[in-house]
Amino acid sequence: MGARLAARGQWSGPPPRTLGTLRRHTPVSTALTTTPGLAYARGVSLGPRSRVEHASAPWAQRLQGISVPIRAVAIAALIVVGILLPRPWGGIPFLLIAGFLGWLLFLTWERLALPERLLRIAVLALAVAVAVVRIVPSA
User: How many domains does the chain have?
Assistant: First the structure.
């Protein structure tokens, strides 16, 4: 209906979305967006999860603005730096990666199925284990 009205010039709203413009998944930052200027009534307090989600929304939007190859190169660079740095300092980049992965896991936890949760927990545990091995001196 909207496409026919748009073709005749009678559609006043935004152009109708076609199947080609629909996204398969909604990005995390879009799901976390808050309305600018949204005011909460006095006495309403958000839970800890909601506070973290609201505080993370601008950072998630900035992260979404960075292209995927650049994000992959940044993570790969942190891994290379962690491997090349001497033993006690080499774990710091892996701790940064683990913190980032933990943040993303926390934000997406409710939207994930059990196998996805288990896989992401395994990757997070691996990053923490590598950081601990790189930081703690060998006996």
Answer: 1
CB neighbour class for 131 (10 Å; exposed up to 12, middle 13-18, buried from 19): buried
Give the Å distances, CA to CA, from 58 to 33, 81, 102, 105: 8, 28, 17, 17
Dist CA 27 CA 30 (whole Å): 5
Tell whether 55 is covered by a domain. Answer: yes
Asked whether the predicted pLDDT for residue 29 surpasses 80, the reply is no
DSSP reduced 3-state for 33: coil
Rounded-to-integer distance, Cα 45 and Cα 88, Å? 42
Measure the N-to-C terminal CA separation of the chain; round to a whole number of Å: 73
Cα–Cα distance for residue pair 86/117, rounded to 1 Å: 33
pTM more than 0.85: no
Q: Is residue 18 part of a domain?
A: no
21 belongs to a structural domain: no
Structural domain harbouring 91: 48-139
pLDDT in tens, 44-75: 778 888 899 999 999 999 999 999 999 999 99
